[in-house]
Amino acid sequence: MHKQLATAVQDMTGRITPKQLAPNLIKTGVWQKEKSAGPGHDRLFLNVLVAITEDDGGRQALEQSLEIARRERGQLRGLHAVASEKERLNITSQFLQGEFTVKCRVAGIEGKLSIETGQPADKLCERSTLADIVVAPLLKSPGTNLITRLNSGFRTLVRRSACPVLAVPDQPSHFTKALLIYDGSPKAKEALFVAAYLAGQWQMPLVVLTVVEEKMTDRSIEAEVSAYLEKHGVQPSFIRKKGAVTKAILDIAEEQAADLIITGGYSRSPVQGLLLGDSVDELLSRTKQPVLICR
């Protein structure tokens, strides 16, 4: 029994890489400051990066990214990661290249697909420094236990990306209504910045959800959000819920017919998050709506 446990621990340790535990070198808030101060801040997602895969999830992510690029009058960069040089040159890669080119042309979007060898999450993180948003299919969610978190490249992408990440499950968003999850944290303020932009520029109705402890009566969080959004000409709806965070989010998203959830990123350190999990992991494991994760 002890030998089996030791073997399991050794196997688990071998799966943990330095990249999974390394903190993001870009501090929370930097992206927002750069976007607010830089030229062309009237278009927040001008440069869209999308992960291209050979399954239906990859096609949904491509459709989602084309819609963002269309709304922003931006450009699209696709990335397809493969394990070897042989795969990079095979017929599947050629097909994906052709499909990407045709879809961009039909949509009237300037687009280019790169096919590279390496781990998808690593390659996307490298290129995220030149992007305003990363769109990726939610093929392997982080799950709710240590093993699934270890095996989830998506978790690594969310932690290390230099810009917001849009997780696309089965169906892309039509951007008809957004649900912002707000708790007053620095990463939630990044999400608020993005939500204000989408509600204002894309004319998306916005619902703000705060999930609080049972005895909490302080309304300062709602007042803070209201003042910020009012300054940007946005009139949201506010909902306050008590109880389990993920259940509240999914219930309200369904009740409000929201097809986009906007939230801050991981709150725990890489080590704590890997061992204990995070509310973002649970949300990604259960959501039917695309989730825009801001860091």
Decide which structural class fits the backbone: alpha/beta
What does the largest sheet look like? 10 strands, mixed
The proportion of strand residues reads: 15-25%
Unreliable segments of 5+ consecutive residues: 1-17, 268-277
Portion of residues within helices: 40-55%
Number of separate helices: 14
Describe this structure as you would to a colleague.
This protein has 295 residues and is α/β, with parallel strands linked by helices. It folds into 2 domains: 43-169, HUPs (Rossmann fold, 3-Layer(aba) Sandwich); 173-289, 3-Layer(aba) Sandwich (Rossmann fold). The chain has helices at 2-15, 18-21, 30-37, 56-72, 85-88, 91-107, 120-127, 146-150, 153-160, 186-201, 220-231, 245-255, 270-276, 279-286; strands at 47-51, 75-82, 110-117, 133-137, 165-168, 178-181, 206-212, 237-242, 260-264, 291-294. The protein has a 10-stranded mixed beta sheet with strand order 3-2-1-4-5-10-9-6-7-8, with helices on both faces. It is globular and about 60 Å long. The termini are far apart. The model is unreliable at 1-17 and 268-277 (pLDDT under 50).
